[in-house]
Amino acid sequence: MSFLIESHPIAVAPLREWLASPDCGGFVFFEGRVRNHHRGRNVTGLRYEAYLELAQKEGRRLVDEVARKYGVRAAAIHAVGDLQPGDLAVWVGAASSHRDQAFAACRDLIDSIKSRVPIWKHETYTSGQGQWIEGCSCPPETNLATPTSMPTTLPLEDTFTDIIAKAQSGLGLNDETLAARAGASLPEISNLKNGVVDQVTLHKVATALGLGADALLALAQSRYNPSPIEVPEGLAHFNSVFDGMTVNSFLVWDAATKDAALFDTGSDGQPMLDFARKHGLKVKHIFITHIHTDHIFDLDRLVEKTGAHAWVCGKEPLAGAESFSLGRIFPLGSLMVGTRPGSGHAAGGVTYFIQGLAKPVAVVGDSLFAGSMGRALVSYADALRHNREQVLTLPDATIICPGHGPLTTVGEQKYANPFFAF
């Protein structure tokens, strides 16, 4: 109920009733309506489109973050479909004991929805022309893949509570042991793990778990979002849904020879095939970062359609793929694709380091995320060590292409990732 996406017209009354509470003295709401002009042009109508499953997930996450941050009840609803000037496009509400928190929460929530939720706006003008002019990511017609601009505003893979859980599990600590190490009470530990942001307890727990407290607090207070990334020609990003989560895959190519490689498959590799065909690319290789199902689900079909060689680390043999030893370098036209250890999350995890584009690129699978890293299913120590030694030693400008969540850079993760920022 806290965040809804509905076809126009949207129904606000149920959300207003849901927010109503006898202990709330301040109720603030914002209405965003379609205006009839934009930058000197007359607007005759617009259309909102959304990546529905992802938008609902990120919207609920934002509402929950704002509610915890300001201690309020919060809700929002956004329209999709065709709208006319004057129509209600978005409604945001917050209720609290006092008006100050409600005002602040309402402003924070609408700003976050506009910047982080994958909803796009296409305006039409009196001239008959139209354009995509707003949205947290690229417009839907790009299929989340473009050689010049990456969708940096996919939601972060992990919340601060996820990070605490991963570190606690990796160190093999139960709550009692963690509380003793941190000098905190069990109720304080429980509240923090349930999303209650108490800065004193958070700093104690971060220290006990070997996490960067400032970076963890920035995540807890929703102050960290990856910076926008301008990517070079020769790199495209694709995102598909697998078992209720989204997974990334990538296409890299040499602009001169058109030789190309796919990195992981996601649940549906067809958009990559379509992109390669449209741009005249010749897919020579399919590189797998690790053999978890969401990363190899469409491998057989991609091999069949492209005739490409599939490659996997020899520590994780896979039927239909050829094994290689870490350290091997694959030429791709004038590009070089190096292979580095990335185990910890998976036994045969690989980081592919690509040189020859305008910026270096590291396809890391689930070894590292923006603001987090993959759960250490094999070795927590190895996961930390390989990220420090094999990824974070790369040039700061290196674009990190993770298996889930938004893209980032090496330089950013040195200060923004609680596992490595101290």
Produce a short descriptive summary.
The chain has 422 residues and is an alpha+beta fold. The chain folds into two domains: 3-142, Alpha-Beta Complex (Aldehyde Oxidoreductase, domain 3), CATH 3.90.1170; 145-422, Ribonuclease Z/Hydroxyacylglutathione hydrolase-like (Metallo-beta-lactamase, Chain A). The protein contains 13 helices and 20 strands.
Q: Give the termini distance in whole angstroms.
A: 39 Å
Mean pLDDT: 89
Low-confidence stretches: 134-152
Structural class: alpha+beta
Helical run tally: 13
What does this structure look like?
The protein has 422 residues and is of the alpha+beta class. It folds into two domains: 3-142, Molybdopterin biosynthesis MoaE subunit (Aldehyde Oxidoreductase, domain 3, Alpha-Beta Complex); 145-422, Metallo-beta-lactamase, Chain A (4-Layer Sandwich). It has 13 helices and 20 strands. Strands 1, 2, 3, 4, 5, 6, 7 and 8 form an eight-stranded mixed sheet that branches. A six-stranded mixed sheet has the order 9-10-11-12-13-14, with helices on one face. A hairpin with a 2-residue loop joins strand 15 and strand 16.
